[in-house]
């Protein structure tokens, strides 16, 4: 499992990566990275939600601070997903780096 900083995460968004937000629905609908898809890691359906995605795809995973997304990346890797990257520091680091969010 690899983590990337906000700058690299932003560059990868432009390279056809799918952005997955593993926070809760209330967090996601409050503030999110544009075009991110909600897949709440706390949901009992998390694995089922993720099974809809191609294991060969490219995924950028984020949460609030980087902990839940790190756990999600570990699950996804264990489940056979080939290219998952964690946003180091989560959306907090993203905002602190001056990157755009949708409110």
- Can you tell me the overall shape? globular
Q: At the third CATH level, what is the topology name?
A: Oxidized Rhodanese, domain 1
Q: Kindly name the structural category.
A: alpha/beta
Number of domains: 1
* Total beta-strand segments: 5
SS summary, helix count: 5
CATH architecture: 3-Layer(aba) Sandwich
Query: For the largest beta sheet, what order do the strands appear in spatially?
Result: 1-5-4-2-3
- Bin the strand percentage: 15-25%
For the record, the CATH class is Alpha Beta
Q: Could you give the distance between the termini?
A: 29 Å
Task: Give average pLDDT, whole number.
Answer: 97
Unreliable stretches, pLDDT < 50, 5 or more residues?
A: none
Order of SSEs: EHEHEHEHEH
CATH superfamily: Rhodanese-like domain
State Rg: 12 Å
Which range best describes the helical content: under 10%, 10-25%, 25-40%, 40-55%, 55-70% or over 70%? 25-40%
């Amino acid at each position: 499992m690899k983590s990337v900083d906000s700058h690299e995460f932003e560059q990868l968004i432009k390279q056809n990566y799918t952005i997955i937000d593993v926070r809760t629905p209330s967090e996601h609908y409050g503030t999110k990275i544009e075009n991110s898809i909600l897949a709440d890691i706390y949901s009992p359906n998390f694995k089922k939600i993720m099974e809809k995605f191609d294991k060969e795809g490219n995924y950028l995973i984020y949460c609030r601070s980087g902990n839940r997304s790190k756990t999600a990346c570990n699950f996804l890797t264990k489940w056979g997903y080939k290219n998952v990257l964690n946003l180091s520091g989560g959306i907090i680091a993203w905002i602190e780096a001056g990157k755009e969010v949708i409110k």
